[in-house]
From TrEMBL, chain A:
This is Raffinose/stachyose/melibiose transport system permease protein. It is found in: Cell membrane. SUPFAM superfamilies: MetI-like. The keyword Mitochondrion does not apply. It is a multi-pass membrane protein. It comes from the Bacteria. Residues 1-21 have a biased composition (Low complexity). The chain crosses the membrane at residues 37-58, 95-117, 129-150, 183-205, 232-253, 288-308. One of its GO terms (biological process) is transmembrane transport. It comes from Thermocatellispora tengchongensis. Residues 96-309 form the ABC transmembrane type-1 domain. CDD domains: TM_PBP2 (cd06261). Residues 1-29 are annotated as: Disordered.
TrEMBL record, chain B:
Gene3D superfamilies: MetI-like (1.10.3720.10). Keywords: Cell membrane, Membrane, Transmembrane, Transmembrane helix, Transport. Residues 69-260 form the ABC transmembrane type-1 domain. The keyword rRNA processing does not apply. It is found in: Cell membrane. GO terms for biological process: transmembrane transport. This is Raffinose/stachyose/melibiose transport system permease protein. One of its GO terms (cellular component) is plasma membrane.
């Protein structure tokens, strides 16, 4: 749920007084009586954050250069050996490729579907409120449960193949989750179904924030529907696009639940993701050094993508 | 902009309704199959007639879903209450104090948004094991609270920065100390953002699978998703029975969703405007 772009606007970093033109006293300063917000209010939040997030994350990064196995208190430095193992391991490499592919495809498709749904329900259609409730409903469903339902629909004799046969496309019917060529995309389909409604509500909020006068002005100037969308609406949705892309990417890169429900990582390693390999290598195989090095790789991937995205949006807005 | 209902609007409406029906197929299939006799091999949407509730009785008993739902409920409520208390308090000095330590602490906390939980996973697991919290609901609660701090603190701080100081000043002039003024004056004014924090965190924590699987898996204290996971691997492809278990596990969240849909959708959209 990272929104770093919203937190670093330069205006917020400055003192409020610095923003008022010189000579005019800031309005609030007139009667400011020294409201005090004590620093110790931070103690519970920062304490639990340090204990659960910061300290173990730092330890995780450090232990990735050691042979720490989680049980013995003694360990020794092994340099980059664990990373060497990760990059030469087939399951780990497949998992990296699968995860990037899954995150990328899901992000593109989910955003297109979400935006189209938002444009649809933002119109005069009479059922718009009911439609929003229906399209959003899968978002609150437990991902694991949604994964099981989809694995039933995608089974060789499941509803999706039956529907294909019923409309004469029986040739397309297949064991979607059992075929290494389609399994990953079948999982993407489930993710898009489940979370398109989330993208929709964020785009909807963006659309509703566009002043009606702007669109009227474009219409008066003779702009067609497509031109209006491309040149007026889309640039004003920039913020919603950034948030949606970020949420989808990070969610996709951490993908675990639906894979565990639908394929368990198979067939072979066709749908292993970074998260499933981290889980299995640590808790089924007991290989902590490998698992922890892979977690470091994952962190770096997420940080790099976030930085790239931040850079791109900075340039577009300036 | 679309002032009138034209034939084009009608086409749009029909397309959207068909799409919505397609969206509902997995949910309808889930409910339908759960009402079929156990050895039924008919398709997902072939009507279950006569419907039977036998699967529900058996799933409830076999998967000990009662205890699992109770655990999910306790974990969700306790985690969310602690998240609200800690995050709202922390946001107060972060929003009101403009000194350097306050700004640096803010960036330090929201920096956590970029760290995937997987990095902390194994050291945290070892710590929880060493202090004897494996299998205890407290391990999951503590982890939820810690992991949700960055986003919740971020939401509260952004909201508080927009809130005028007038009420706090009035409270101060009336002789309120900082703690009392925070609890009685500031916190009630944070209600809109508290709503968003409650909604986002409750849905996320109720549905969470990975953390409880790791910390509660194999113990008697499972949550609904973990119980379902064990149940499904035990009754492979006995779909009517499995689906009855799935329905039971998601009924609470779906009931809350359809009862409060307007607020929930607004909470999800509002949490992201920053």
């Amino acid at each position: 749920m990272a929104l770093p772009h919203a937190t670093t606007t330069p205006a917020e970093a400055r003192e409020p007084a610095a923003q008022t033109p010189s000579g005019v006293p800031p309005r609030r300063a007139r009667h400011r009586v020294g409201v005090r917000a004590p620093w110790w209010f931070l103690v519970p939040a920062v304490g639990v954050y340090l204990f659960i997030v910061v300290v173990p994350s730092v330890n995780g990064a450090l232990f990735s250069f050691t042979d720490w196995n989680g049980l013995r208190p003694d360990w020794s430095f092994v340099g980059l050996d664990n990373f060497g193992t990760v990059f030469s391991d087939r399951a780990a490499r497949d998992a990296l490729v699968n995860t990037l592919l899954l995150a990328a495809v899901a992000t593109v498709v989910q955003n297109i579907v979400g935006l189209l749904l938002a444009l649809g329900v933002n119109s005069m259609v009479k059922s718009r409120y009911l439609l929003r409730v229906i399209f959003f409903a899968p978002v609150v469903l437990t991902p694991l449960v949604a994964g099981y339902v989809w694995s039933f629909l995608l089974a060789p004799n499941g509803a999706i193949n039956e529907a294909l046969r019923a409309v004469g496309l029986g040739g397309l019917a297949r064991d979607w989750l059992g075929d290494p060529d389609t399994a990953l995309y079948a999982i993407v389909a489930e993710i898009v179904w489940q979370f398109a409604g989330y993208s929709m509500v964020i785009y909807l909020a963006g659309l509703q924030a566009i002043p009606a006068e702007v669109l009227e002005a474009a219409t008066i100037d003779g702009a067609g529907a497509w031109y209006k969308f491309r040149r007026v609406v889309l640039p004003l949705l920039n913020g919603a696009v950034v948030i949606n892309v970020m949420l989808c990417l990070i969610g996709g890169l951490k993908q675990f639940d639906q894979v565990m429900a639908m394929t368990g990582g198979g067939p072979g390693t066709a749908t292993e993701t970074i998260s499933t390999v981290i889980y299995k290598s640590a808790f089924s195989l007991g290989d902590f050094p490998f698992s922890i090095a892979l977690a470091v790789v994952m962190t770096v991937v997420i940080a790099v993508l976030a930085a790239v995205q931040f850079r791109l949006t900075q340039r577009r807005t300036s | 902009m679309h002032a009138r209902y034209t034939w084009r609007t009608l086409i749009r409406e029909v397309v959207l309704i068909l799409l919505a029906l397609a969206f509902l197929v997995p949910l309808a299939g889930l409910l339908n199959v759960s009402l079929k006799p156990q050895n039924s091999q008919t398709g997902a949407l072939a009507p279950a007639w006569p419907p039977t509730l036998d699967n529900y009785v058996e799933a409830w008993n076999q998967a000990s879903l009662g205890a699992a739902l109770a655990n999910s409920f306790v974990i969700t409520v306790v985690s969310v209450v602690l998240i609200i208390a800690f995050a709202a308090m922390a946001a107060y000095p972060l929003a009101r104090v403009t000194r350097r330590w306050s700004r640096l602490t803010f960036y330090f906390v929201i920096g956590g948004l970029l760290i995937p939980g997987q990095l902390a996973l194994l050291p945290l697991y070892a710590t929880m094991r060493d202090i004897g919290l494996l299998g205890s609901l407290w391990s999951v609660i503590l982890i939820n609270v810690g992991q949700q701090m960055p986003f919740s603190v971020f939401l509260y701080t952004m909201f508080l920065r927009e809130l005028p100081l007038d009420y706090e000043e009035a409270a101060l002039l009336d002789g309120c100390g900082p703690l009392r003024s925070f609890v009685t004056v500031v916190f009630p004014l944070l209600r809109p953002v508290t709503g968003t924090v409650v909604i986002l965190n409750s849905v996320g924590i109720w549905n969470e699978f990975f953390t409880p699987l790791l910390y509660l898996g194999g113990s008697d204290n499972t949550t609904a998703p973990v119980a379902i996971y064990g149940f499904v691997s035990q009754y492979v492809s006995q779909w009517p029975l499995i689906f009855a278990g799935l329905v039971i596990s998601v009924i609470p969240i779906l009931v809350v969703y359809f009862a409060l849909q307007k607020h929930i959708i607004k909470g999800f959209a509002g949490g992201l405007k920053g």
